[in-house]
Design goal:
It is elongated and about 135 Å long. It has a domain of 257 residues. It has 793 residues and is an all-alpha fold. The chain contains 40 helices and two strands. It is 68% helix and 1% strand. Helix 3 runs antiparallel to helix 14 and helix 4 crosses helix 9.
Length: 793
């Protein structure tokens, strides 16, 4: 009972000190009762408590790192967050307040009426009507006015944000908070090693935790205020119609003034705070210069008794943590107090947020650290990771430099922001000045603008590449890939091609050089081909580069080397130049997949007229593609190749076409070489029809049908073999002459029909004129003899 009363009477605040003593006092190696050296109660208790402390300390460190990473990221996100006034819920809420305020105008009118009747100073018509009209007008534009003020403040915010770049990155890289905590290598042997570290460096651990809390609170205070301002500004926008209404009456004008104080104050908080943060980051970027300016040699000396960290405590390290804390926490206080913030209650809100954040992060994290437990496997894995990257780097992740290429990404972001400003400069001379002065990122931003406008010289490109870090940096390699090498001279392209080490950038230069014909030897082309991995890529490059080699003999050496795609690329070039034999042409065609678009395209481009009859016959007999087969057959028909000049061969070739009209058109190509063979093929195919649509299936019917529709010059060009040397053909022509002469007989000449008139001139008949046309156009003497033998009835 007594014990229970004592426990009830003990203040709850004593629990934390008791817990603290329970954790740390067992660290000191006081030995308890031991039985003969074989079993020691003190040893057992020491081991258990030491391991519990190790687990707890590790949890505390990890929690600190996590909270710091989240806080820094959240701060960077919140200060970059833009306040939009066109949010639907804000607009609808504002409309409700506006409509309600419009209804309350009646009360203002009633007050004005009574004030006028009773002559109350300040409430009469003369005093209130101007305010009434102004409020009635502006109350409907209060949301727009508030939005303009917010946008104006945002312009100030953007000025500082653009100048600062990545806030989280600057804080993490500048302060390097992961160096505050013990090296993980000492914790690799388990909880006993951690507890040993705590015993030997107890003060160091406490001071590291204190410094971490300083960093955490420095971020948490402005984060709390910056986050709270957003809903407060939205709320002030929603009630803005009521504020304008309250401006009418003297008794309510104080509320109107207070609304303006609050609205302007919350808008100006962030510009004021960013002003101080800008200087905090500015001092961080020039840390070495500031420490050197202190003029003391001890700033870099480690402080005795504070060892065991990744980087021992120095006066410079402590100085910079407190300097940043002064700027960030003090900047928050000054920003809240500046201008119209005096007496608005913001200080109380910020103080509450600061205290709450500090208390919760500090004591609650400590309480959780005591209760946390990690199994042995998890602890060993965490120790391994910590040895590689440090406790805090794992906790802060990408913010504090754990990401490869972080600095280059930050540089690219900063350059992009500055480039947006420089794009407004239209004078090239002004941009050229900026290319060589000021901070490096400003120079690079100006050079990027000049590059986009095509105003950089060859030397400018080279210097910009070097400023980016050349082949050794990602930024340098990306810049090299962005250059338009087609606008450079051949000498400059050659220099870039020789100096670049990035494969993708080197390919880009090689592509331009290939198109410009700057690879003039097979060896240089093959070396450039090694930049590509896939056979298709190599073949495409080879096709571009090899076109510039005019010596076909040299190119022939590439016909048998490399992949099939590379061989085809060379063969296509030689084929276009007519440097392949018919057999080589067909071999090239056969290398393509049968029926593929590439095969058909190559086959239809072949100049069959310049091939021998044997080669044409090979193509016709062996080509699997009908389109290629038809082209070969057409040339064979026009040339009169013997293998094609028979009725069965012509009929078979005609069947390669889809319809009768196409078949007839093909057969007529062979008429000059063997007219009668085409007639027999038409009769066999049944492609010629009379006026009634009936197919003409006999030689005589097809022959007469065709001859009666041909003009004299076309018939005269028919060859002797298979034409004028064939009696059936001659008889068909004779029949046409007879029919023409009968339908249009000749008119004999005679004397004048009237005295003194002109005589009547003779007029030849239709048959005579047709025969005369045959005689005039015939060139073969044998055919001409047959024409002269034709008679006129």
């Amino acid at each position: 009972m007594v014990n229970q009363k004592i426990m009830k009477a003990a203040p709850k605040k004593l629990l934390l000190p008791i817990l603290f003593l329970g954790l740390f006092l067992p660290i000191f190696n006081a030995q308890a009762l031991s039985l003969g050296g074989f079993f020691g109660i003190g040893d057992f208790a020491y081991e258990a408590v030491a391991n519990i402390f190790g687990y707890s300390a590790y949890l505390l460190f990890a929690s600190l790192g996590t909270f710091m990473g989240v806080a820094v990221t959240a701060l960077a996100w919140v200060v970059n967050l833009r306040i939009y006034t066109n949010v639907p819920v804000i607009e609808e809420s504002w409309k409700i307040m506006r409509d309600f305020a419009n209804m309350l105008f009646i009360i203002a009118l009633i007050v004005m009426a009574y004030g006028t009747i009773f002559n109350i100073k300040g409430y009469d018509f003369r005093s209130l009507i101007p305010k009434f009209l102004i409020a009635a007008l502006l109350i409907n534009f209060s949301l727009v006015i508030g939005g303009l003020i917010i946008d104006a403040a945002q312009i100030l915010n953007n000025t500082f944000l653009n100048a600062m770049g990545d806030i989280a990155g600057h804080l993490g890289q500048g302060l390097e908070p992961w160096k505050l905590l013990p090296e993980a290598a000492n914790a690799s042997d388990g909880a006993e090693a951690i507890s040993s570290l705590a015993f030997s460096s107890f003060v160091t651990l406490l001071f590291a935790i204190f410094m971490a809390f300083v960093f955490l609170i420095s971020v948490a205070v402005p984060l709390t205020v910056a986050l709270v301002r957003i809903p407060i500004l939205w709320a002030l926008l929603i009630v803005s119609p009521m504020a304008w209404l309250l401006s009418i009456l003297p008794a309510t004008k104080g509320a109107y003034d207070k609304w303006w104080h609050q609205f302007i104050g919350w808008n100006l908080f962030l510009p004021y705070y960013l002003f101080f943060m800008y200087f905090a980051l500015y001092f961080l970027d020039r840390k070495d210069e500031v420490l050197a300016g202190l003029g003391q040699t001890f700033v870099n000396d480690k402080i005795t008794g504070l060892e065991g960290l990744q980087s021992d405590f120095t006066f410079g390290l402590i100085f910079y943590y407190f300097l940043v804390a002064i700027f960030m926490i003090g900047g928050t206080k000054v920003a809240m107090s500046a201008g119209t913030f005096s007496g608005t209650g913001v200080v109380q809100v910020a103080k509450w947020g600061r205290d709450r954040v500090a208390n919760r992060i500090g004591w609650t994290a400590a309480g959780r650290a005591v209760k946390g437990r990690f199994d042995e496997l998890g602890e060993k894995e965490e120790a391994r990771i910590a040895r590689q990257t440090g406790y805090m780097r794992d906790a802060l992740g990408r913010i504090t430099g754990g990401k490869v290429g972080f600095l280059e990404e930050q540089q690219a972001k900063d350059i992009g922001e500055i480039k947006k400003r420089f794009e407004r400069i239209t004078d090239p001379a002004e941009l050229r000045k900026l290319m060589d002065k000021g901070p490096l990122r400003n120079q690079l931003a100006a050079r990027e603008v000049m590059k986009d406008r095509g105003l950089l010289t060859s030397d400018d490109y080279r210097k910009t590449f070097e400023l980016y870090g050349g082949n050794n940096t990602l930024a340098g390699r990306q810049f090299a890939k962005s250059i338009d090498y087609g606008k450079l001279s051949s000498t400059d392209r050659g220099d870039w091609y020789k100096d670049l080490t990035d494969v993708e950038a080197k390919r880009k230069v090689a592509e331009v050089m290939a198109e410009k014909g700057e690879f003039d030897t097979v060896d240089s082309i093959q070396r450039a081909q090694s930049l590509y991995a896939l056979p298709g890529e190599k073949a495409n490059f080879l096709k571009k580069a090899a076109r510039r080699i005019t010596d076909n003999t040299t190119l022939r050496g590439l016909m048998t080397t490399g992949s099939d795609q590379e061989k085809l690329a060379v063969r296509e070039i030689l084929a276009e130049r007519g440097a392949l034999t018919g057999a080589e042409m067909f071999d090239t065609y056969s290398m393509y997949r049968a029926g593929s678009k590439e095969a058909v395209d190559f086959g239809t481009k072949v100049d069959f007229e310049n091939l021998s009859q044997t080669d044409r016959q090979t193509w016709y007999n062996n080509a699997p593609d009908n389109e290629v087969k038809r082209k070969s057959a057409e040339v064979m028909a026009e040339k009169g190749d013997p293998s094609m000049m028979t009725a069965p061969a012509l009929a078979a070739a005609a069947n390669l076409y889809a319809n009768d009209a196409e078949k007839i058109k093909f057969l007529e190509k062979a008429e000059k070489k063997n007219f009668m063979a085409t007639v027999d093929a038409k009769a066999a195919l049944g492609v010629v029809r009379d006026a009634a649509g009936t197919p003409l299936a006999t030689r005589g019917a097809v022959l007469n049908f065709r001859v009666t529709r041909m003009k004299a010059d076309a018939l005269a060009e028919i060859g002797y073999d298979g034409g004028w040397g064939n009696p059936d053909f001659v008889n068909a022509v004779q029949a046409k002459i007879n029919a023409l002469q009968t339908s249009e007989p000749s008119i004999p000449g005679g004397p004048p029909t009237t005295p003194g008139g002109p005589p009547i001139m003779p007029k030849p008949g239709g048959g005579e004129r047709f025969k005369k046309g045959l005689q005039d156009n015939a060139t073969d003497t044998r055919s001409l003899a047959q024409i002269f033998a034709l008679t006129i009835p």
